From TrEMBL:
Name of this protein: DUF2442 domain-containing protein
Annotated organism of origin: Rhizobium glycinendophyticum
Lineage: superkingdom: Bacteria
InterPro entries registered for this protein in UniProt: DUF2442
Xref: Gene3D superfamilies: Uncharacterised protein PF10387, DUF2442 (3.30.2020.40)
Length: 81
């Protein structure tokens, strides 16, 4: 489950693994990223089993993405009617 590439879009974080799979999770799962602009969101360091944002000194493990584990305080955005 080693990440080889990671990037963010405006709504999701994506990780490509060494075995070729790509996984994604909604950005709202990680409230600690909410204050970052597009450049900050994409300044990601690859770790052996996860990814890290030095600007906020926070990261997520690939395993937590697979298991659907959200960061504390994560709240789904309100859906417009």
């Amino acid at each position: 489950m080693r990440p080889v590439k990671a990037w963010c879009t405006k709504d999701e974080v994506h990780v490509t693994l060494a075995d070729g799979r790509t996984i994604s999770a909604p950005l709202w799962w990680y409230p600690f990223l909410s204050g970052l602009d597009e450049q900050g969101l994409n300044e990601i360091e690859l770790m052996y089993e996860g990814i890290w944002w030095t600007k906020v000194d926070e990261g997520i493990s690939v395993k937590s993405m697979f298991l659907g584990v959200k960061a504390p305080g994560a709240k789904a955005p309100d859906k417009a009617a």
